[in-house]
């Protein structure tokens, strides 16, 4: 029998010392996304007006109750106006029956493409999607799945995906840097929304892989329970464990319910999140509980989604990843987002001339 070699005292000592947090990598990540975004074309230029002359798009968002979805829809409408084709944004309130009504309307009114926008789970309307495709419509999604960890279902014609993992890693890296590798975080998100999983897993995974002295736990808070369960869960957690130093909601709109819980608990915990929702940026500018938000221009997202859809309708090579870069807002630069903040200010406007040139409009 082959004997394993004995470990030396030096080797045993090395095993006994936990690995240090990778602070250099975390700082580099923060530095990278603290730079003003620049436009990178997602594909080759094409004559958008010529190929879209007789085509029209129908957009069904997750819910118009979320300003995030509304802002992406506005960006998509702006792109359609620039190119000169019909685009309709359907009204929904997180109700699958309304999504079905939208699909039926798109078929009845002769639209060429249906886009499920901003987190709508298409599997809930898969039979209706099949009917639409049989009727000749293309069915896609914008800003729904993660570009690297989630598969687009076979019953879809395509999707313009987001690097949600990147945003989760930015959130985790920020907390690491601010605490010098001693994060004790509460992570929250609504499991029923498609992008939650990759962001949640990226936050937890980054801390686990890069920060041996960091701890984090996750609480599922469904979208419709944010105002009730969100506040109570955070308040109870902070009272039970006053050492929690960060509350990391997957979506920053949850901050309106989390901030009161932090105040009532008398905690010094800070909020760090993803999206760039204007009222949350205003909270950052006016207070000190929201410390950092990693956002992206939603007008840019909308234009990029339309770009991918046009390429699909025009028979061009597909684009399956949105080219919308992340940007970090803190109290040092949040005023660039506007006073009051908007979904597009603060990111620069390189995407507008970028897309105009890409689509042959100048």
From TrEMBL:
PANTHER family (alphabetical): ABC TRANSPORTER SUGAR-BINDING PROTEIN, D-ALLOSE-BINDING PERIPLASMIC PROTEIN-RELATED
Top-level taxonomy: Bacteria, Pseudomonadati, Pseudomonadota, Alphaproteobacteria, Rhodobacterales
Annotated Gene3D superfamilies: 3.40.50.2300
The species this protein was found in: Rhodosalinus halophilus
Coiled-coil regions, chain positions: none
Signal peptide boundaries: 1-21
UniProt family annotation: Belongs to the bacterial solute-binding protein 2 family.
InterPro entries: Peripla_BP_I
Record's keyword annotation contains Hydrolase: no
Domain of life assignment: Bacteria
Compartments where found: Cell envelope
Name of the protein this chain belongs to: Sugar ABC transporter substrate-binding protein
